[in-house]
Amino acid sequence: MKLVRFAISNLAGSPFRSWLVFFCAALMAGFVVSGTLVIRGADSSLRLALERLGADIIVVPKGHNRRLESALLMGMPVHMWMPDTVVDEVRAVAGVEAASPQIYLSTLRGATCCSVPEMFLIAYDPETDFTLKPWLDKNLEGGLASGEAVGGSLVFVPVQDGALLVYGTALALRGTLGATGTGLDQSMFFTFETAFRIAEESSELAVKELDIPPRTVSSVLVRVGLDQDPHQVALAIAEKIPGVTAMETNSLFQGQREQILSLLNTVVALLGITWLLGMGLTTVIFALAVNQRRRQIGVMRALGARRTVVLKSLLLEAGMLALAGGILGIAIAALAVYLFRPLIVRLMGVPFLYPAFVPMAGLGLGALALVLLGVLLAASIPIVRVSLQDPAISMRE
User: Fold this and answer.
1) Cβ neighbours of 88 (radius 10 Å)
2) Mean pLDDT across the chain, nearest whole number?
């Protein structure tokens, strides 16, 4: 306890140097946390989006692959149509184990059903679906009936309406899917039967009629056999069926993945530079501090203080500054990334998922340990040197 009070009094006696070390620690911790949050969050978001799709290949009308990526990533509703005969043609391709059609729609702009101005609606065929079915079987016994839906994490039932209204038709929200950080969070899933019912009733209930062209689908999700190469199957689909693009899901978001990799390399390089500069500045600051306190250290040693006590006292000062600065840097970085997430997403063009409490706490503790280690290592160089010096020499200087 006396050692702690002594360290605090020494820090208070040199406020300028103390604040410099404090801000160095805050900068290092903040950079580690903010960079890791953005990179890990973007990677997790893309990975969860691919898992949610649950297909090996997505077949869409030719030229619409980029629009679909934008819809899945950023939640920008897309409308695309191709004849429903494509479904049977896809099933006939060698290597295709299952094929299920989907229809892409959107809510009226400014709908009250979610926290975004326009929501992506996905209608699926319950007879052939293999992507949403595992989640429904696990969480909703019997699946979805007509007039029922499940939504992404941003979909909710408005209190003022008391019901989930889509083009005037009331839907029952049976469940909410886990957050992915992508456009799937502002998507709603229901059956073909529900989609056609909404379209039929929209002429009377909605300000704008929902039009679904007859005998059309928007995409076909494909699952290939266990011993099949998705790339070869995709090539076969594109070759045998004119007017379509077969997108392999493991190659989806390739541009975004490359962007994340480039960002990772940049962050690692900047982190290394920041780390070296921070350690160098901390070493210089503590070298100046111990040089000015040589007489004090000499007196302590002459009065009987052991070398280890002097060493502990000085390292305690460094550790206290590292902990205080690190905690502040982590808090500011985490809050800034959380508050400015929409801006970061727009600037990067890649969504990212903010981590839950436990992973966030683990990241914070890791960053704090890294900062503490760096500051103690930097400070130990001049501290060890002065603690080994003869007390008589220190008192004369």
Assistant:
1) 10
2) 78
Quote the pLDDT of residue 392: 45
Q: How far is CA 316 from CA 281, 364, 372, in A?
A: 18, 21, 11
pLDDT digit string, tens, across residues 251-263: 766 566 666 677 7
For the record, the structure tokens of 158 come out as 């408005």
| Nearest residue to 96 (alpha-carbon basis) of 291, 262, 227, 282 | 227
Query: Cα angle at 117 between 160 and 217, to 5 degrees?
Result: 110
**What backbone torsions phi and psi does residue 46 show, to the nearest 5 degrees?**
-65, -40
Residue ranges per structural domain of the chain: 2-46+256-396, 63-242
Sheet with 96-106: strands ordered across:
164-166, 169-176, 148-151, 187-191, 120-124, 96-106, 219-224, 57-61, 244-248
Question: What does the chain come to in residues?
Answer: 397
Residues pairing with 245 in the sheet: 60
Residue 24 pLDDT exceeds 90: no
* Closest C-alpha to 152, from 129, 197, 121: 121
Backbone φ and ψ for 370, nearest 5 degrees, come out as: -65, -45
Q: What is the pLDDT of residue 87?
A: 92
CB-based contact 124:131 (threshold 8 Å): yes
The pLDDT tens digits of the residues spanning 201-257 come to 888 877 788 888 889 999 999 989 888 888 899 899 989 999 898 888 877 665 666
CA-based end-to-end distance of the chain:
30
CB proximity list for 240: less than 8 A, separation 6 or greater:
89, 93
